[in-house]
Amino acid sequence: MAVLVWLLIPVAGAVVAGLWGTWATRRRSGTGGVRDAAGVRGYEAFRAAMERAPADG
Question: How far is CA 11 from CA 4, 8, 16, 18, 24, in A?
Answer without folding.
Answer: 10, 5, 9, 11, 20
